[in-house]
Amino acid sequence: MSFKRLGLDLNLVESVQVMGYEKPTPIQEEAIPQALAGRDIIGCAQTGTGKTAAFILPTLQRISDKPGIKALVVTPTRELAHQIEKVALACARHTHHSVAAVYGGMPYAPQENKLRSGVDLLVATPGRLLDLMNRGSVDPSNVEVLVLDEADRMLDMGFWPEVSRVIRALPPKRQNLLFSATISPKVLEVIGHTLDKPVSIEIGRVSTPVDLVEQSLYPVDAMQKDELLVALITERTMERVLVFCQTKRRADYLFKMLTRRGLEAAPIHSDLSQAQRLATLAAFRSGSCRVLIATDIVARGIDVDNVSHVINFDIPSNPEDYVHRIGRTARAGETGTAITLFAAEELADLRDIETLIGKRLPCEDLEGFDYMERVMPSIDSAPAPRPRARLVYNGGVRRLSQPRKKRR
Q1: Please, are residues 82 and 104 in contact by the beta-carbon 8 Å criterion?
Q2: What's the CA gap between 124 and 59, in Å, rounded?
Q3: Across residues 54-79, what is the average pLDDT?
Q4: pLDDT tens-digit profile of 178-204?
Q5: Is residue 287 part of a domain?
Q6: Into how many domains does the chain fold?
Q7: What is the extent of the structural domain holding 254?
Q8: Is 102 helix (H, G, I), strand (E, B) or coil?
Q9: Selection from 225, 259, 257 nearest residue 345 by Cα
Q10: Which CATH number characterizes residue 282's domain?
Q11: Which of 55, 101, 172, 258 is least surrounded by Cβ atoms within 10 Å, i.e. has the fewest?
Q12: Cα separation of 166 and 139, whole Å?
């Protein structure tokens, strides 16, 4: 199947050829004809399968020549907005369309100047988009196509009230495209009423990791995680490593610790400025930074090919985050390795992950490493008891429900 046979016009096909695409990926092959036909779409595909081009290409072809913003892509993070803008600019190389991205962490003036010069397709994060709407710099009244990228992540990160306000400001008659690596029931519950008889496209299994990722568990005492991390990176001669941890403080600590050990490392999290985050990603892509230490809040904005290893220093408390973390490797058909450092107190979170992916993670040891006493997760052991989590829709924040104390 060629891009031309999908129904794309010659200008877009020429742009695709310049981008180096020889044939459409499965999600592009299924989604592009449906989008060109004007259908609302719920698209679910694993990371690295070409979802961005799957919604950008038909959107550029379908929007009219009327003045104003005709296509709006809303995405949760600055890194994702920047990446989508790059793909959209490449797709529009041989068309007359103007593309721009607006997101927080950058001055307003350059973004507003770009908007005043005229934009056909706008990529935006929810907060900055609302700010610019309130300042009168963005007029959404002419939007013909709305794309919600990583909608489930926007729900988890608490952006849904902002997204809902944006949706209410749009023309009721429009095309809606919802794309993500996972589509949770909660997302469909809150967005379903805005979709008009959507076609659902699923490539691969929903909420499961990339099949080409080799996954393993390294049991270790919590006090030895630092030492094991260094030993794994050095003794396994890992080339491009992405380390995930739970907090910004932990990311900064690991950066300092690895740097003292002579490893080229850098942290990336929401406390860094946009310029710092882009510079860090550029260093990681170029190979001058060997180890990138990230928190989950920026995980989906990390779009880097040839990541050899993903290491979960901390096991995520949300099992969906495990799927997104390991999806940073084994992109576009390549193989990859995901290693999870496991301490005894993380057993309940480990069991939640194994329930989601439908299998137990195999345990491994690093030969020659001097392990302290540690707990090995039994294959037959039940999850440790703990308060169960439930999703409370107050912006999509996941909280543990605790019983209220009775007043005397």
Answers
A1: no
A2: 16
A3: 94
A4: 988 777 777 788 787 888 989 988 875
A5: yes
A6: 2
A7: 213-378+385-389
A8: strand
A9: 225
A10: 3.40.50.300
A11: 172
A12: 11
Q: Are strands 213-219 and 99-102 parallel, antiparallel or unpaired?
A: unpaired
How many whole angstroms separate alpha carbon 115 and alpha carbon 342?
Answer: 48
- Locate 9 and state its tokens: 């016009």
CB 326 within 8 A of CB 353: no
DSSP tag of 38: T
Q: Is residue 242 part of a domain?
A: yes
What tokens were used for 240?
């491009």
Q: What distance in Å separates the CA atoms of residue 28 and residue 32, rounded to the nearest whole number?
A: 6
How far apart, in whole angstroms, are the C-alpha atoms of residue 72 and residue 88? 12
Beta partners for residue 393, in sequence order:
none
CA angle (48 as vertex; 47, 54 as ends), nearest 5: 95
- Are residue 350 and residue 252 in the same domain, yes or no? yes
The token pair that represents 366 in the structure block: 């690093």
* β-sheet bridge partners, residue 146: 72, 176
Q: How sure is the predictor about 384, in pLDDT bands with cuts at 50, 70 and 90?
A: very low
Q: Among the three residues 162, 185, 203, which one is the final residue of a domain in this structure?
A: 203
Q: Is there a single domain that holds both residue 243 and residue 187?
A: no
pLDDT of residue 300: 60
Query: Look-up: residue for tokens 């081009």?
Result: 53
Q: Are residues 15 and 153 in the same domain?
A: yes
Task: Tokens 């949706």: give the residue.
Answer: 167
Order of strands, sheet of 291-295, starting from the edge strand that comes earlier in the sequence: 213-219, 336-342, 309-312, 241-245, 291-295, 265-268
- Sign of the alpha-carbon torsion through 138, 139, 142, 143: positive
pLDDT tens digits for 282-333? Answer: 898 888 899 999 987 666 656 677 788 999 999 998 887 888 788 778 665 5
What is the DSSP code string of 121-151?
Answer: EEEE-HHHHHHHHHTT---GGG--EEEEESH
Residue closest to 132 by CA, chosen among 160, 105, 103, 153: 103
At how many degrees (to 10) do helices 51-62 and 26-36 cross?
20
Q: What is the mean pLDDT of the chain?
A: 84
- The residue count of the chain comes to 408
